[in-house]
Amino acid sequence: MSRKNESITLSVDEGQKAQLEAIALKFGCTWGDKPNVSELMKRIAAGKLEITWGDEAPAPEKNAAIMKAIATIQDGLSLLLRSL
């Protein structure tokens, strides 16, 4: 059985993987009872989850650059999802 969607590889260390899985669980992104990081990424790309900063926000100029980068990533992921 072949996949209907494109796949990407995300290289993270064990701690980062655990953090992503915890976030996936927090937002109900699961496959059965296991966290599903792919579903988490799809929801971010679709604009269904918003990324915000914690207590320490970056300087305004840095924040603008970061937000532009996030928007570019979301646009790219949306294009990828629409092409499937």
Tell me what you see in this structure.
- By secondary structure, the chain is mainly alpha-helical.
- Helix content is 54%, strand content 5%.
- It has one domain.
- The chain is built from three helices and two strands.
- The mean pLDDT is 85.
In short:
54% of the residues lie in helices and 5% in strands. The chain is mainly alpha-helical and 84 residues long.
Structural key phrases:
mainly alpha, two-stranded antiparallel ribbon, 84 residues
Mean pLDDT: 85
Instruction: Order the strands across the largest sheet as they lie in space.
Output: 1-2
- Termini separation (Å)? 16 Å
Overall morphology: globular
Task: Provide the domain count.
Answer: 1
Q: How many helices?
A: 3
Radius of gyration: 14 Å
Quaternary class: single chain
Percentage of residues assigned to helices: 40-55%
Order of helices and strands: HEEHH
Structural class: mainly alpha
Strand content: under 5%
Strand and helix layout:
Elements: H1 14-26, E1 30-31, E2 34-35, H2 37-45, H3 60-82
Antiparallel strand pairs: 1-2
